[in-house]
């Protein structure tokens, strides 16, 4: 169950980041007081903001079951990997071999950090 909670945190964090990117990508733009109606109608921004809050709550729940030195690196690195992949899929951003290698090395490093807990 603790790993499921952490996986949900990773997904919520990554989804929030991808939605915030969508919120500031044309035809949308950064919500501002100069355009209050546009700001209110920018649903990706608001959903992303809510997901960031949900990520914090999920992370807090994970900390009740896992040590901080395990939960934080897994959540952070998992979100980094998920955002890199999601940005390539949803925004057509590049995913060079160096990024893939970096993600693999981060995952390996976090696995080593978490070895005794897994």
UniProtKB/TrEMBL annotation:
Keywords noted in UniProt: Cell membrane, Membrane, Transmembrane, Transmembrane helix
Broad class of where this protein is predominantly found: membrane
Coiled-coil region list: none
Bilayer disposition of the protein: Multi-pass membrane protein
Record GO terms (molecular function): transmembrane transporter activity
Annotated GO CC locations: plasma membrane
Compartments, record wording: Cell membrane
Keyword DNA-binding annotated: no
Transmembrane segments: 40-62, 74-91, 97-115
Similarity comment: family membership: Belongs to the drug/metabolite transporter (DMT) superfamily. Small multidrug resistance (SMR) (TC 2.A.7.1) family.
Protein name per its UniProtKB record: Multidrug transporter
Taxonomic source organism: Nocardioides iriomotensis
